[in-house]
């Protein structure tokens, strides 16, 4: 049954029977299911029995004041908004009403159209809140450690411990590792296992935009600050509010932006581009890089003071080739994940397929493994993922030295395609443009992971 068709329940509380009948008649005519009560005691009984969506109550009644209703509802551990009405429209009563937690406060004689507008706004806010709570709960479940990162490797166990230690604080964390190792998943795990999980998680790819655009994206801008700035815009630091901002590939930002980012981390304030108003920054900062930032500092390409600000806690994610014993666990995890996304039922993998996967060096790490498994699952006609569906995988490590000249053309081509795919942050259309091939060619190699269109095109 469509829950939108069920009338929303309104409780009207007033000691005046004429007002009760008037409000009941009007609100019923507007499509609500109305219950009435003549005093606070009857109202609490109705709240327990009827669970109304909204309470509309008079303030001054014999016995307990209607001002007490919001706090009494809170004591019942309920979240029912209360609209208070009164014939004495004075400042003191208004302040008390809002202090007690009333949603709104109206003076008599009542404007019924205004009351209806406020009730509609309350209900819309409730629906939005319920939806956001559902999203947060889904995200929290999705990014629980056991649902995101698997492995028995000692380095991974140490990462689990570090994540557990930093979730309850607001310290800055630097996550380093090769492309495709799951740095953003670790960042999301930190956020969604923290007390701020209900606040925004804002991810910014620092390589995706030119310097001027990235500055506007991070800090926002004011109208007229540059060509095309037709209105004020809030930046990611502002949008993150009390949540988390994740700066991916932080090693790519320019020296100018490094200075501005250093100031934010030091002073927790910033200004929009072209603006002079100082804005506070309350978000936790997580950063990631596929470069060795300590080496970048030593070679003068990254500010040392910024590096130390970012590197309060460090997480170094090992490449997949250094945790081969975890591959069977990761394959099992990815099978479950991909089946859920594609609504398929491929729960078995042949010994030959597992041997082929385990022997590969995986230069693209877990991202590459997931792409190849997704392609194989899409193409399989049985309930077994067989090695015949996997491409010929090289067992050579990604970085070669003197033997580099012995690599096949197919190996070099495959590595270059994957490198471009990683550098464009999985943007298939951009990858195809750079390589000079058709989009279907790239989609065949890197199929979309789910029917909702996840991935960039």
Q: In which order are the strands of the major sheet placed?
A: 2-1-3-4-5
Q: Count the helices. How many?
A: 19
How many beta-strand segments?
16
Q: Please report which band the strand proportion falls in: under 5%, 5-15%, 15-25%, 25-35%, 35-45% or over 45%.
A: 5-15%
Give an overview in words:
This protein has 457 residues and is of the alpha/beta class. It has 3 domains: 3-135, Rossmann fold; 143-318, Rossmann fold (3-Layer(aba) Sandwich), CATH 3.40.50; 321-445, Helicase, Ruva Protein, domain 3. The chain has 19 helices and 16 strands. The protein has helices at residues 17-29, 40-50, 69-75, 91-99, 112-142, 145-148, 154-166, 183-192, 211-219, 236-240, 255-267, 293-298, 304-310, 327-342, 351-359, 365-379, 409-423, 428-435, 439-445; strands at 9-13, 33-37, 54-58, 82-86, 104-107, 173-176, 201-205, 220-221, 233-234, 244-248, 269-270, 279-280, 284-289, 313-316, 348-349, 384-385. The strands form 5 sheets. The chain has a 5-stranded parallel beta sheet with strand order 2-1-3-4-5, with helices on both faces. The protein has a 5-stranded parallel beta sheet with strand order 7-10-13-6-14. The model is unreliable at 133-140, 397-402 and 450-457 (pLDDT under 50).
Brief overview, please?
46% of the residues lie in helices and 13% in strands.
Topology of this protein?
Elements: E1 9-13, H1 17-29, E2 33-37, H2 40-50, E3 54-58, H3 69-75, E4 82-86, H4 91-99, E5 104-107, H5 112-142, H6 145-148, H7 154-166, E6 173-176, H8 183-192, E7 201-205, H9 211-219, E8 220-221, E9 233-234, H10 236-240, E10 244-248, H11 255-267, E11 269-270, E12 279-280, E13 284-289, H12 293-298, H13 304-310, E14 313-316, H14 327-342, E15 348-349, H15 351-359, H16 365-379, E16 384-385, H17 409-423, H18 428-435, H19 439-445
Parallel strand pairs: 1-2, 1-3, 3-4, 4-5, 6-13, 6-14, 7-10, 10-13, 15-16
Antiparallel strand pairs: 8-9, 11-12
Helix pairs in contact: 11-13, 14-16, 18-19
């Amino acid at each position: 049954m469509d829950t939108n068709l069920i009338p929303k329940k309104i409780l009207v509380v007033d000691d005046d029977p004429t007002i009760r009948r008037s409000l009941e008649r009007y609100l019923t005519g507007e499509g609500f299911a109305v219950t009435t009560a003549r005093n606070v005691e009857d109202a609490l009984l109705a709240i327990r029995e009827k669970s109304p969506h909204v309470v509309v109550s008079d303030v001054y009644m014999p016995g307990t004041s209607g001002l007490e209703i919001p706090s009494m509802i809170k004591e019942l551990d309920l979240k029912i908004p209360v609209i208070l009405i009164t014939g004495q429209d004075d400042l003191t009563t208004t302040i008390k009403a809002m202090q007690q937690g009333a949603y709104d406060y109206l003076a008599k004689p009542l404007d019924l159209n205004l009351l209806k507008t406020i009730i509609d706004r309350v209900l819309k806010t409730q629906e939005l809140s319920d939806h956001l709570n559902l999203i947060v709960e889904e995200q929290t479940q999705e990014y629980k450690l056991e649902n995101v990162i698997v492995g028995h490797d000692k380095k991974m166990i140490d990462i689990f411990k570090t994540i557990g230690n930093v979730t309850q604080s607001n310290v800055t964390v630097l996550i380093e590792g090769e492309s495709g190792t799951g740095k953003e998943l670790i960042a999301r795990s930190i956020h969604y296992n923290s007390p701020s999980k209900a606040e925004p998680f804002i991810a910014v790819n620092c390589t995706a935009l030119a310097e001027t655009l990235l500055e506007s994206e991070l800090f926002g801008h004011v109208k007229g600050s540059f060509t095309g700035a037709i209105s004020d815009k809030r930046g990611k630091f502002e949008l993150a509010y009390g949540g988390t901002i994740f700066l991916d590939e932080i090693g790519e930002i320019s020296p100018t932006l490094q200075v501005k980012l250093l100031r934010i981390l030091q002073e927790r304030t910033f200004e929009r581009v072209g603006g002079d108003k100082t804005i506070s920054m309350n978000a936790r900062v997580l950063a990631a890089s596929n470069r060795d930032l300590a080496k970048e500092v030593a070679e003068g390409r990254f500010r040392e003071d910024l590096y130390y600000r970012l590197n309060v806690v460090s997480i170094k994610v090992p490449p997949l080739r250094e945790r081969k014993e975890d591959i069977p666990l990761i394959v099992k995890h990815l099978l479950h994940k991909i089946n859920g996304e594609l609504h398929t039922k491929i729960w078995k993998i042949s010994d030959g397929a597992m041997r082929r996967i385990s022997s590969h060096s995986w230069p693209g790490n877990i991202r590459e493994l997931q792409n190849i498994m997704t392609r194989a699952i899409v193409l399989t006609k049985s309930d077994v993922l067989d090695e015949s569906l996997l491409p010929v995988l090289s067992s050579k490590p990604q970085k070669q030295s003197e033997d580099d000249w012995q690599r096949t053309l197919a190996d070099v081509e495959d590595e270059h395609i994957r490198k471009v795919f990683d550098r464009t942050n999985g943007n298939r259309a951009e990858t195809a443009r750079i390589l000079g091939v058709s989009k279907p060619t790239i989609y065949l190699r890197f199929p979309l992971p789910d029917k909702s269109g996840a991935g960039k095109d």
